[in-house]
Amino acid sequence: MTLLDVRGLTVRTADGRTLVDDLSLTVDSGERLGLIGESGSGKSLTTLAILGLLPDGMTATGSVDLAGTQIVGATEKRLAAVRGRDAAVVFQEPLTALDPLMRVGRQIAEPLARRTCLKGAALREAVRGALTQVRLPEPERIARAFPHEISGGQRQRVALAMALACAPRLLIADEPTTALDVSVQAEMLDLIDSLVRERKMSVLFVSHDLAVVARVTDRALVMKDGRAVEEGAVHDLVRLPREEYTKALVASARRLESALDLRSAR
Amino acid sequence: MTPVLELENVALRHRGSTANVVEDVSLTVEAGHSLALVGESGAGKTTLLRLLLGLSRPTCGSVRFDGAGLSPRDRTRMRDFRRSVQCVFQDPYSSLDPRRRVGAIVAEPLRSLGLDTRATAAPKVAATLERVGLPADTADRYPHEFSGGQRQRIAIARATVCHPRVLLADEPVSALDVTTRVKVVDLIAELKQEQGLTLVMVSHDLSVVASLCERTAVLERGHIVEQGDTAQVLGAPTHPYTRRLIDSVPRLPA
Amino acid sequence: MTLTETRPTKAPRFGRSSRRSATLVVGCVLAGLIALLALVSLVWLPYATDDTSGGRLTGPGGGHLLGTDKLGRDLFTQLMTGSRIAFEAGLGSVAVAAALGITLGVLAAFAQGWLDDTLSAFLDILIAFPTLLLAMLIVAARSATLGSAVLAIGLAQSAVVARLVRVLVKRVLTQDYITAARTSGTSWPRTVLGHVLPNIWPTLVVNLALQFGLAVLAEAGLSYLGLGAPPPNASWGRMLQEAQATFTTAPAGALAPGVLLVLLVIGVNLIADGLRETLDPATRRRRA
Question: What number is the ipTM of this complex?
């Protein structure tokens, strides 16, 4: 069953520049799709358009069907119902995604309470559960902390817990590990992988890094200057890229990686 | 041979803090042996770089340039140091003064070190901009007209215009896209080769380190846990932290 | 954008930029007209400032464009000298505020530890100190002249400017290009002049323009209370005060300076708004 069906999505600015151009993609229930592109490729705008979160002055045309709801042109009220329930998002920078003046526990409690109607001790227990699920040590301490009091990796886990608290059917992850250290990134990718598997969720994973995408998704779409360049299984894209741009992307990634291999082999 | 730059048992503690940011760090930078400082956030990489740049002073231990300590009072020697040791930053947006033309930005070391006048600096600036692969009219334009990769080239031009011996670089390519990253890595490699430049690079990206540096020091929470030839450190790591770093690097499917 | 290393072509934003320059033009016209009055008053006035031959409180018309005041002096003449005084007060105060404020602000930004605390406390006290009291003290120490008023206003405003400059400079100092200047061997004075001031300049100029408007208002207030320029120099504030008693019978005497005061302050504020973006090289280029 198709969960997300994007057809001919075009995003324009107020002065007429086209930032996303006639993009189409689908994500089935339980499927994972990677969206690969470099800065300016329009990949992040695509995720915003899917959630109806485009900044002021930008307009989307085309069709975004998310679990039966047409997002393009939908009212804010309609969108609010969709966000969280059908799709939730984890952004690149967890520090800006979290409210700096609110304790972490309360930030997770809000979406949880909305979905489950829990209160008091039961809600607190649910928050603890949500934090444990993303493998945060000492969930009680983290729940009492403010975002700036915990590390970047921990913040991103909190952001993930918030997204999952709504039990969405689609998880949108926009460069969720780019701001993290390598070893923290590896843990985070494993975490996303296993949580999504357990819950049979769909994932739209956005990244500039082919190797990172390859760890989470099996299928990927390469974007450049707002257009889809190539789509296919990640392994095929990496092994036998068809388009020039994909080739350049893979070659660059391989170049850097081979330096590592040469050094280690010697 | 005397090392160009040397840290000996250096520790640094911020005012009002009880813990050292870096502790008991000894490093030598020898001409022709580029050094990478590898580690994750909070490991103290940038602190070491600031010490090497003479921007902070160690709480204990010593920083030496050409075998002797540095004193801000010794103007001639400071000028020699500044001329010999230049720097490239991570964020190509905050490292270029938005209100100056590129020509003035690149000429700054020449002018400030008293090496050139405005007139004599201009041809050197033009040659350097060309060397880093930027079009001829770059000098007359403002930084905001350039992309991240181009801005990093401008920053590299500024750092190499006075032909320093050592280039300190703080995550010089981590803010760039992969395709741009490869090109800038290539540029730095060429400059190393051509100008006999010794690179001291802070990075968390092991593939960039492997591409550019002969030696690697691994930092964990302010301590050096392992250092040696890059091939040795990355190929046969002895410390578990180094091993964990290497294993964490995401790899393309074969 | 970093990918191709080519420059993205940005379409000009006609809508926004033309609205902004319209603001600037309207502001300049308003303030310019009054500035013209002030300039002309330096070389030519319809009547002498102490000429009381015109009869008292004549309405507009006859030999007097706006009529005369209760002493028989020509209102338009007073208005012209008043606009000169307004500009002198505005420019003078802003000059004092800028010179003192920028110096103190830069010092405070570089100061660390106890010096930073001391300077901040000093600025806070100066901001909290009523301008009126300051003016009275200065007038008591010197005399009730325009200079005293300007000094009082400028001193009071310098604290506001200094606090703004301190924050702006501190923000600029965290930028990598400042570190780059240091590692290039640029001395601190040259860094401040070459990097710090140019980068805080746009925000500062806008604020100084706003301070100009406030200073004009403050001077009118002080001369209304008799703490400004002494007679026969008719400042707008004094005109307002003198026309107060006869407002119902001869409103022109109060309305004319009032309207000019409002127009000048609005004009200067519009200029400040217009300057805000015009001074940014990014938008300047885009418009070109």
Answer: 0.89
